[in-house]
Write a structure and sequence with these properties.
Length: 523
């Protein structure tokens, strides 16, 4: 292969690294939080250098409290909280690097408003090489929805309404002014008001009733009525009784008396509307102020029943209805989340997840189990899934509090480096086989012959060895004892040498005899 080709393959096999700036992040979940609700703030670090410990201190106002500190990855991190110092350490002293969402801070809201959470003295440590990195302080804010619908002050034509309290529903004031200006100051900046402004008495009317309505941030309504009158005229209009039914046709009983003009009624959060059916005793109903159906809002609701007598004087009966929401559940947690074919490590307090799926999956079979049966949920974004798709599970509690669980879709990654390596390896082997086909064939034949010869020799030696070791029957004994090869060889050599010496000696003796015989003949 050429050098250029080798360089290209090497370049493809090595991953390209993108280095991000080291950072420490605090991010609190966004949502509609109410007093006594819990919320989560997440801490994460993105650092190139390895680390096995992270420490920081925290600060926040009295409107929230820290309930618990934990990790979403308990198999990796162990977190402790001691004297406003949170320390996170890896288990088994393992080293981590890159982006890690390692900590979860669980808070509880005690008061409404905007609350700030600040992390200071942030450090990451590496115990193996004794290095340490410090980070700038980080902070995040959380908004707790207010239920405050209280009125701080009311002014009538520039003068403060004396004796005003937030528990009183109706104020009657005599006024000779043709024009009346009402100013209202609220306790909470996030509440809204209707009813303040300029008013005038209707022509030939002795009475002006102005409702002041305050809607809190969480949708709880307060109603205060201010009744203005010019003089105390005798009003003869009256009722004989009032029949009240809710939207389920249940009768609601009030202690009615014709000469009592204010009534107070409490209903539960399940009551959606009321049907008011008054019975006139003296006079006739003013248009739209007789029989009526009222849709109830959370908090205060007011029904006015007006009758006109023969002289044109108007008598008004007031029914103040309070729809309570304090008993409504704020539980919007998912207790268990099942996704068919996937194992998601779910925790009800963790709102963000990343799920790896295959590219051909267009929709997931998701089944949430709610912790509170009075809550409800909807699923959005679970269609035509692609890389980066976000599935939202929105849970609404009985009191309207909403929580959103998010699942970010990620395609399962392919190890392209390994894939390229295998392709190159296979291609390389194929290239070698094709180019050196003849050499490989000859080498294979040569090795095969050597192997056959070696096996043949080995088999022959084994046969000889078996023949030598085979027992030989003796005439006197049934088996001949086994003799060591070396000893046997030495014995054979010795016998051979002995025979040779004996043969030589005989020849020598024969020669001597011949010489002796010759000498005898000579004599």
């Amino acid at each position: 292969m050429s050098k250029k080709f080798f360089f290209l393959i090497s370049f493809l096999l090595f991953p390209i690294m993108v280095f991000a700036k080291d950072e420490f992040v605090l991010e609190c979940d966004k949502g509609n939080y109410y007093i006594d609700d819990q919320f989560i703030c997440r801490v994460s670090i993105n650092q190139d250098a390895s680390y096995d410990e992270i420490d920081f201190n925290y600060e926040f106002d009295d409107g929230i409290e820290l309930v618990d500190v934990r990790s979403n990855y308990e198999k990796v991190w162990q977190i402790t909280n001691d004297k406003q110092t949170i320390s996170a350490k890896t288990k088994s002293d393992t080293q981590e690097s890159g982006l890690q969402e390692y900590g979860i801070l669980l808070f509880k809201a005690k008061t409404d408003g905007i609350h700030s959470i600040k992390l200071i003295n942030i450090k990451s440590k590496n115990s193996s090489n004794k290095t340490e990195l410090t980070y700038d302080d980080v902070n995040s804010e959380v908004k707790v929805i207010s239920a405050n619908n209280n009125i701080k002050e009311i002014k009538i034509n520039g003068k403060v309404l004396e004796g005003f309290t937030n528990t009183e529903k109706l104020y009657s004031l005599q006024s000779s002014d043709e024009k009346i200006n009402i100013e209202v100051t609220l306790e909470n900046e996030f509440a809204t008001i209707t009813g303040a402004g300029d008013y005038t008495f209707a022509k030939d009317s002795n009475e002006l009733i102005v409702p002041i309505t305050v809607l809190s941030e969480n949708g709880n309504q307060k109603v205060v009525l201010i009744r203005f009158y010019k003089d105390d005229k005798i009003q003869s209009g009256s009722l004989n009784g009032i029949l009240i039914k809710d939207n389920k046709k249940n009768n609601l009983i009030i202690d009615f008396k014709p000469d009592v003009y204010e009534y107070y009624l409490n209903v539960t959060s399940s009551v959606a509307s009321l049907e008011i059916s008054p019975e006139a005793g003296n006079g006739e109903f003013v248009k739209n102020y007789g029989k009526q159906t009222i849709k109830l809002l959370n908090g205060d609701n007011v029904v006015q029943i007006r009758l006109k007598d023969d002289n044109g004087n108007i008598r008004t009966y007031f029914i103040f209805i309070t729809k309570t929401i304090k008993n409504a559940s704020s539980n919007n947690y998912i207790s268990n989340l099942k996704i068919d074919g996937y194992n998601l490590e779910f925790s009800k307090r963790v709102k963000n997840y990343v799920l790896e799926i295959k590219k051909n999956v267009n929709k997931l079979d998701i089944t949430p189990a709610l912790e509170d049966d009075s809550a409800s949920y909807i699923i959005k974004g679970n269609d035509n899934l692609t890389e980066g798709s976000v599935i939202k599970i929105i849970v609404t509690a009985e009191n309207g509090a909403r929580a959103t669980y998010q699942i970010t879709i990620k395609y399962k990654s392919v190890n392209y480096a390994l894939y390229i390596f295998l392709v190159v390896a296979v291609a390389g082997v194929g290239y070698i086989v094709v180019k050196y086909k003849g050499v490989i064939k000859d080498t294979y034949k040569s090795l095969s012959k050597k192997f056959e010869v070696k096996n043949s020799v080995k088999n022959t030696n084994v046969k000889k060895s078996i023949d030598k070791k085979a027992p030989v029957k003796n005439k006197k004994t049934s088996a001949k004892p086994v003799v060591n090869k070396e000893i046997k060889k030495q014995a054979n050599t010795k016998n051979t040498n002995t025979k040779k010496k004996t043969s030589k000696k005989k020849k020598t003796n024969k020669g001597k005899k011949k010489k002796t015989s010759k000498k005898s003949k000579k004599k």
